[in-house]
Amino acid sequence: MEFWPEFLASSWGKEFVAGGLGGTAGIVAGYPLDTLRIRQQNSRTGSAFSILRRVVTREGPCALYRGMGAPLASVFFQNAMAFQTYAILSRAFSTNSTGVEPPSYNGIALGGIGTGAIQSLLLSPVELVKIRLQLQGKTNQNENKNQSGSEKGPLHVARNIIRTEGWRGIYRGLTITVLRDAPAHGVYFWTYEYMREQLHPGCRKSGEETFRTMLLAGGLAGVASWIFCYPLDVMKTRIQAQPESSPAKYKGIADCFTRSVKEEGYSVLWRGLGTAVARAFLVNGAIFTGYETALRCIFHNNNHAAMQTENSI
């Protein structure tokens, strides 16, 4: 019974819970735009608006939230672990890791890279299932609607992948997920820490930045990281979107890149970028605002409880 108060009283507990709450806020805020991004990346033509209109008309507004259960079920633990891992690694790699000063920018970048690589082990299967569900309606327009896995939830899709492709199938796209997420997270955390300090000098040490600073710094961090890794994200979507019921279209990352560029030109590498950038600003502003706000609330509640305890003594 004493575990939860003691856990929240530790710095690890605070960062874990705050990271989880921030991640949940980000999923809820940006999921419809994520669905549009995935559909754009996996199609040859169509603007975000035309795809949005087609999806809503043919499949209904709920189709924009199809597959949200998979990331929503894991996002609290995933983001909690990501922020906790980042906090540990950024301090470990920092040249001024005294516990008083904030981590150095080099430590932040290296900590972010390590966080992205580790997080990919959990994120890759979740995104595989999410992508299959997000593209389900599109697939059903060209294939038999009785196709295995049609109109089913995340658990059914995951079981179907494991049954037909084995455990190796559930980790399809792991390599490119690591290649995308490791450097992108380095850019992500570095940009956030740099921008919050520029917008509110001294806040990295005091932790007293405004909500406006959190939103802007978080949003800009998301935009910077997505622009940096976007071509790899397009390749990842195409590799993971390949249905388990048919032979793989792409033999690997290099083959996916070569064939996509040859058939559709280099512009395919940036297809859906506008949607991704809009989503990134919204989602990551929400994530960091949720994270920093949760940290403040936890610290405030813990300090308040400590003062009551002292007074009672």
Account of the 3D structure:
The chain is an all-alpha fold and 313 residues long. The protein is 77% helix and 0% strand. Helix 5 (105-134) crosses helix 8 (174-199). The protein is globular and about 55 Å long. Residues 143-149 and 303-313 have low confidence and may be disordered.
Write a concise synopsis of the structure shown.
InterPro entries: MCP (IPR002067), MCP_dom_sf (IPR023395), MCP_transmembrane (IPR018108), Mitochondrial_Carrier (IPR050567). The protein is mainly α and 313 residues long. It is built from 12 helices and no strands.
Mean pLDDT: 82
The percent range for helix content is over 70%
Reported for the largest beta sheet, the result is: none
Distance between the termini: 22 Å
If you compute it from the alpha carbons, what radius of gyration comes out, rounded to the nearest whole angstrom?
21 Å
**Strand percentage:** under 5%
How many runs of DSSP E, i.e. beta strands? 0
Helix and strand element order: HHHHHHHHHHHH
The class by helix and strand makeup works out as mainly alpha
Low-confidence stretches: 143-149, 303-313
Q: Any idea what the shape is?
A: globular
> What is the oligomer described by this structure?
single chain
- Helices, by number, come to 12
Essential attributes:
Mitochondrial_Carrier; single chain; mainly alpha; 313 residues; 77% helix; MCP_transmembrane; 12 helices
Give the topology, please.
Elements: H1 3-9, H2 11-41, H3 48-59, H4 69-93, H5 105-134, H6 136-142, H7 154-170, H8 174-199, H9 203-206, H10 211-240, H11 253-264, H12 273-312
Membrane topology: Multi-pass membrane protein
Subcellular location: Mitochondrion membrane
Keywords: Membrane, Mitochondrion, Repeat, Transmembrane, Transmembrane helix, Transport
